[in-house]
Amino acid sequence: MCEACLRRVGQKNVYNTPCPMCRQLIIQCIKKTELVKTLKDFYPEEYRARLREQRKYLNDKFSPLPHRRTALAQTQEDIRNRILGQRNNLQPQRAKIYLAGFVLLIMIVPVVSLGKAVVNSAIGLVQDIWTWL
């Protein structure tokens, strides 16, 4: 499927998007570079027209490609919802204590096992929560 069609299919729920053909959940979208090159070589006019159409669609409304959430992303979202969802019930000091505990948990897990990108996204999550408190 083309990128614009995949983005349209996944607009409502990026993480649990079923394939329109077989109805299985889409786990990952990988661009087929050889197919793109072949299409560009054999059908240059149609390829350029379709590319213009895709760019127009992507400029109008951006939606991420469908994918599955990693376990860490799910955990981060659960923690964010728990802290922010209870924000009105908690005093700010208590919420900040929970957040500090989460920060310590992130620091305990070695960067080598998770990777720098995951740690940076976790730090961004902490900064988002801190600004909400």
Which labels suit this protein?
single chain, 133 residues, mainly alpha, 65% helix
Model description:
- Helix 2 (33-42) crosses helix 3 and helix 4 (71-85) runs parallel beside helix 7 (116-132).
- The chain is elongated, with a radius of gyration of 20 Å.
- It is 65% helix and 0% strand.
- It is mainly alpha-helical and 133 residues long.
- It folds into 2 domains: 3-60, no CATH class; 71-132, no CATH class.
How would you summarize this macromolecular structure in one to three sentences?
The chain is mostly helical. The protein folds into two domains: 3-60, no CATH class; 71-132, no CATH class.
Give the number of domains: 2
**Total helical segments:** 7
Shape: elongated
**What do the pLDDT scores average to?**
71
What is the string of helix and strand elements? HHHHHHH
Main sheet, how many strands, which sense, barrel?
A: none
Helix content: 55-70%
What is Rg? 20 Å
Termini Cα gap? 42 Å
GO molecular function: ubiquitin conjugating enzyme binding; ubiquitin protein ligase activity
InterPro entries: RNF180
Protein name: E3 ubiquitin-protein ligase RNF180
EC number: 2.3.2.27
